[in-house]
Specification:
Glucose Oxidase, domain 1; 8 helices; 23 strands; seven-stranded mixed β-barrel; 2 domains; about 35% strand; ten-stranded mixed beta sheet; about 350 residues; Rossmann fold; alpha/beta
Length: about 350
């Protein structure tokens, strides 16, 4: 059936609908990754967003089965799709991978997520690069067409965080993971290092739990919406607890340290973002999904910029000069994407008390 993708600036394209035939609104963003759509679509950081894939062919290797490891889905980053809609150029209606059990179209129907294909995603991407990310909508039924919505004004983190603490026992050191929308592979990376993990809601008083360190997870939206998490992170810093912030968690760590954050024009969403490590000649290729960044000029004298983006010079990580606090704006656990920076988990484990 016919469907349309519309942007708030008046841009509109007609294509063919797939997935669940539902009108959807959200922030229109683009991702330049070539593979990994099962992990990408289930990344909670995409909550509230309509995802435009720049790679032209999507769906050719289908969707794998729901296998579990350590109680977590192996091939997905959470229990469900979090993007509100999907926009692609060419949809593969058949799959050809040994692990696939269904097509992308079938999966989206199951998850009640709408999609549209047969549109010029490169044109849409150029528009978003020029004008910046903006509200968009996928329309199947024009008689009941919704208004544009800016999800950044909502508390998206509360939608994706766990409601009660969850434990993943492994022995060894204990880490509290503050779930702002945590990807499964953050937990798996810690479990592989013989770390027991207690996953708590984003607004939980995590200092009430016996722990050797804190991980502030990734998640969707504006970090300034997470006031309780920021306040708790500041209390943990006052106690000198080792803290690792990832993506949104890095921004929360920066805000707790007194720095400021701002919205990027069109964000970083891909598996091929180059970042430079300060004080070295090393450049790492990283997986990223964020629309906000720390303003490095607002860091206090006790903090240093750890990484910078090689494309636009924006901040990609912060580190304290003497205490065990550090954050990465990218995803060291990858999934999908390269694992060049998984050494950051090793640094964190060495810092645990």
């Amino acid at each position: 059936m016919k469907a349309k993708i519309k942007l708030k600036d008046g841009t509109g394209l007609e294509g063919t609908g797939f997935g669940y035939p539902l009108n959807a609104t959200g922030e229109a963003v683009f991702n330049t990754g070539m593979v990994g759509y099962p992990e990408t679509l289930t990344d909670p950081s995409y909550c509230g967003q309509i995802l435009i894939f720049t790679y032209p062919l999507i769906g050719n290797y289908g969707v794998p089965d729901y296998e579990r490891e350590n109680g977590l889905l192996k091939n997905f980053e959470s229990e469900k799709i979090h993007a509100r809609g999907v926009v692609i150029t060419d949809l593969s209606l058949e799959h050809s991978h040994w692990s696939a059990v269904k097509t992308l179209d079938e999966w989206l129907k199951e998850q009640k997520i709408p999609g549209i294909f047969g549109v010029d995603t490169r044109m849409l991407t150029r528009r978003l690069r020029e004008a910046g990310t903006m509200p968009g909508k996928i329309v199947f039924d024009e008689k009941n067409e919704p208004e544009f919505e800016d999800p950044n004004l909502s508390d998206l983190v509360s939608e994706v965080s766990v409601k009660e603490p969850v434990k993943y026992e492994r022995g060894g050191k204990k880490v509290t993971l503050v779930d702002c929308g945590a990807k499964n592979n953050i937990i798996q990376a810690l479990l592989r290092r013989n770390i027991s993990v207690t996953r708590v809601p984003y607004d939980y008083d995590f200092l009430s739990i016996e722990s050797d360190g804190i991980v502030l997870s990734n998640g969707p939206g504006d970090p300034k919406m997470c006031g309780t998490t920021i306040a708790n992170a500041k209390r943990a810093m006052d106690k000198g607890m080792p803290i690792l912030g990832i993506c949104l968690g890095c921004q929360i760590l920066g805000l707790a340290a007194g720095a400021d954050t701002y919205k990027l024009k069109y964000g970083h969403r891909s598996h091929n973002q180059p970042v430079n490590e300060a004080g070295t000649k090393r450049c790492y290729i990283t997986s990223q999904n964020h629309g906000y960044a720390i303003n490095s000029n607002t860091l206090s004298q006790d903090w240093r910029e750890w990484f910078t983006n090689d494309n636009d010079g924006t901040n990609e990580g912060i580190i304290h000069i003497s205490r065990p606090f550090f954050g990465a704006q990218f995803h060291p656990e990858a999934s999908p994407g390269p694992d060049d920076t998984e050494f950051i988990f090793d640094m964190f484990v060495r810092a645990l008390r």
